[in-house]
Structure prediction request, 584 residues.
Amino acid sequence: MTQGFAEEVVNRPLDTVEGKRVALDFAPYMKRHDGLMEEHRFVTPLDETIVGLCRPERFMRLVRRYMLFDGPHKKVARYQQVATVETLLKRTEERDAAGRRKGGVVWHTQGSGKSLTMVMLAKSIVMAHPQARIVIVTDRTDLDDQITKTFRATGQEPKRAATGENLLTLIEDMTPVVTTLIHKFRAGLNKRRVVDTSADIFVLVDESHRSQYGNLDSLHARMREVLPNACFIAFTGTPIAKKEKSTFAKFGDLVQPSYSMRDAVADKAVVPLLYEGREVVTDVDDEQIDRWFEVHTRDLSDDQRADLKRKMSRAREIEGVDSRLQSIAFDVGQHFLANFKGTGLKGQLAASSKRAAILLKKLFDEFGVVTTEVVISAPEMRESEDEVDEADDDLVRTFWRKMMERYGGEDAYNRTIVEQFKGPADPDIIIVVDKLLTGFDAPRNTVLYVARRLKEHGLLQAIARVNRVFDEDGAPDKPFGFIIDYTGVLKDLGDALASYDALQGFSPEDIASSVLAIRDEANKVPGAHAALLDVFKSVSNSFDAEAYARLLADEEIRVCQGIAESIFCGNGTGMGIPARRVGA
Prediction:
């Protein structure tokens, strides 16, 4: 849109019919409008925005392609979603020498609406190419379930491939929208060979960094074997690592604009993250445990300390519990109680193994401070590369059998606890190993307690579990997500970032500006406090409420106070940091 076009629109007089319609609702302002239109007026930034957005052809395109219902909620695309879809629509019109459409890699940080971008892209592709078919590919069952639900919530009806054989059947039947796990391409080809040579198949691969290189490289090849001429578009919520440069080779160039953590925080699409490293007792020296206990209960009464000490003594009797697990459970419970209990906000704890997760649950139950549930996979399933085989662990097998008896199956077990966690009632904290550390969205999830080693993508995926904006009606204030680290994993954040390329605008600052140390923020409090007190320095009697009210009647002073409060906010500690634990 040119400046001249905007000037023409804003200086164009209303015709008689338009003028009468506008006057019905805006009669008090028509005199000013008429005076403004007597001479040529300058164009304001707001004019440019409105004219640019509301040009009929653009506005109707936004309504048709970029507005949708996500369940009962109407949602409108953000600027990066519109720009990305428009870029991809143009790119897919280009073809290589073999007639295949060009794809690419979309990098939009976690929590910024990547799944809805996929929905909008699929919708726009079908509108532009009625014969198009969409295949959405993920690498985990929970993500496959999530993306299927997202598509259905927006009014589309994808068919979910139940098996490898079923996937091939859906492709043969030319099903319009299919969701599948990438592993099912290989499973299907192990039974029979199917090849669909259509160039009008669009494959949208979610979290492409995990399943398209390294040991899983053959899975991408099997997908290409079935759909040799399809257009492949990759989506990722984390940067592309140097060792994953093959992702670009497989899918094509990075799609602009990319959308980093810093971008999302600046747009308030996600909340920034506050980090605190905490130490716990790691041996069985009774004197050291007692000293640690005294330090961490200094704000409690004598009766409260005595009660907790009795509970910790009983907790030591739980078979298999070492002092580190006991200390973590105690510290997490006290931290959550002081800062989040009863607020409607919740937490997630990443344990080092299924056994550790179950023992932590037992400890929380013994202490009785917070309510918890455990979500793990079956004993024979390894949840991460670092996890030991726990298939023969009696504690794990007994726990799993009880869960299956209680809920009637793994799907119901997962679904019930996740739904409870997303609501305002119990549990306060959900304990996991690897499950729900990726692709899990729960806006009230506010604090992640890290009690296991995480690295690279796993680290960046996990910390993003608590960066979702919580803006439901009646939702409590959530200015930050909190990372409480018991392993020192985030002190190596720079090393994790060093494994990634700059990725056209991505830099360590993108994350450094989004993960802030609590102590650094707490150090801002004295200055902010002084600035706030300075606003009221003219009030001689600090007990006179009327004097404060009269002072604040001055709008200029209220503005100054507002600036101070924007720095010094949230429970009286600054930056929305929970009051009782800053610097603890």
In short: Confidence is low (pLDDT under 50) at residues 212-216, 500-506, 567-584. The CA atoms of residues 568 and 574 lie 4 Å apart. The longest helix spans residues 323-339. The two ends are 54 Å apart (CA to CA).
